[in-house]
Amino acid sequence: MQFALDRPHRDDVRIAVVGLLGGLALWGLGLGMNSGRVFDGAWLLVPLVVMAALELLRRTRPRFAVIAGTVAVIADQFTQGSLATVLMFTDLMYAGALYGTPAAARRLPVVTGMLTVAVTLGFVAWWRQPEAVLIGVATGLVSFGPAATGMLVRGHREAAQAERLRAEQTALLAEMDRAQAVTAERARMARELHDMVANHLSAIAIHSTAALSLDDPDTTRGALKTIRENSVEGLAEMRRLIGILRDAGEDTEPVAAPTLESLGALVEQSRTNGLDAHLAVSGAVTGLPAPVELAAYRIVQESLTNALKHAGQGRVTVAVDRSAERIEVRVDSPYGADRDGPRAPGSGAGLVGMRERAALLGGVFEAGPQDGGVWRVRAALPLHTEGPLHTEGEDLT
């Protein structure tokens, strides 16, 4: 049933029509190929019509077309013979190698090649004349030649298809890499923007609330002074980030990233904003890898911002400990105590950003309450990135 439902390709219909009309024209002109024929007259039309019909199956049933076409071309040799029948047979051999199954396409040149050799040797042994070689040559031209050509064309098409698939896969992987790079860059920009601006905006929010809630000229003046300082510094940080994003060109000098040597200024600014902050450094904080130094600075900065927002009354301690293998930063602030002043709202993005910074460098990050009413933020960052410092869940103490 499936055999009857297959519709021939329009090109196959054209080939069949042209072949049939050409064969009829040759027959009408009385042009034949064979002299010692068994069947004369219109008998050559039988293999001609069969071969034209098989051309309709050259794509959909190539194996059947080759087998039936072989029978038809042999039958044509017992008639007056038609050049159109032979030419259509060569096309069937070509299509059999091109459109057949991969196994059939590989076997067809081998079988036709062996058939060519066998026909040549057989006629040479039978006729014992050099002209017998011409029979073998003709057999190779109508069988082995088209089959080998079809196999070569098939190989080129498969190679081209493989190259197209490889190019599509490469483009897909490149697009995935680009999307991941964009996502990573957006996450990095979000962390930088949050860490740079959140500290200043938190101080502005707290001191503006204090200025509005307290009817004291000195307190109001001091709050406004702090607000102005944080506004100017926050604006400078924003300009620095915008300058980095714009990448204005060669005339723009590179903006220096914050270093751990400027932690003193950061802690001093926290004191100005109202925190009782103190800094303790153990070991040299110079000569660190730039990503490690920036991450450590930002973690301390965000920890001080959180302390400004949420910590109770008491001392905030910043400790930096550098060893040969790692640098550890720790920020302890009062936790659970009542807070007299106003609080700034928080979203939790700061803890997420600090954890991401540590994870990207193969370090470990911890944040949570400790005994004695202390909220501790601690991060250990490796100075060499061969692997993480600790297994998951390992205590840093």
Q: How much helicity do the residues have?
A: 55-70%
Number of helices: 11
| End-to-end CA span | 79 Å
Order of helices and strands: HHHHHHHHHEHEEHEE
* Order of strands in the sheet with most strands: 1-2-3-5-4
Question: What gross morphology would you assign?
Answer: rod-shaped
Rg calc: 43 Å
DSSP strand content: 5-15%
- Whole-number mean pLDDT: 81
Helix/strand-derived category reads alpha+beta
User: Which stretches are poorly predicted, pLDDT < 50 over at least 5 residues?
Assistant: 248-254, 387-397
Q: Total strand count, please?
A: 5
Q: Can you offer a commentary on this structure?
A:
The chain has 397 residues and is α+β, with helices and mostly antiparallel strands. It has two domains: 2-170, no CATH class; 259-397, Heat Shock Protein 90, CATH 3.30.565.10. It is built from eleven helices and five strands. It has helices at residues 2-5, 10-28, 45-55, 62-76, 83-99, 102-127, 132-213, 217-246, 263-272, 290-310, 349-360, and strands at 276-282, 315-322, 326-334, 364-370, 374-382. The chain has a five-stranded mixed beta sheet with strand order 1-2-3-5-4, covered by helices on one side. A hairpin with a 3-residue loop joins strand 4 and strand 5 (374-382). Helix 2 packs antiparallel against helix 3. The longest helix is centred in the middle third of the chain and has 82 residues, at 132-213. The two termini are 79 Å apart.
Summarize the helices and strands and which ones pair or pack.
Blueprint: H1 2-5, H2 10-28, H3 45-55, H4 62-76, H5 83-99, H6 102-127, H7 132-213, H8 217-246, H9 263-272, E1 276-282, H10 290-310, E2 315-322, E3 326-334, H11 349-360, E4 364-370, E5 374-382
Parallel strand pairs: 1-2
Antiparallel strand pairs: 2-3, 3-5, 4-5
Helix pairs in contact: 2-3, 2-5, 3-4, 3-5, 4-5, 5-6, 5-7, 6-7, 7-8, 7-10, 7-11, 9-10, 10-11
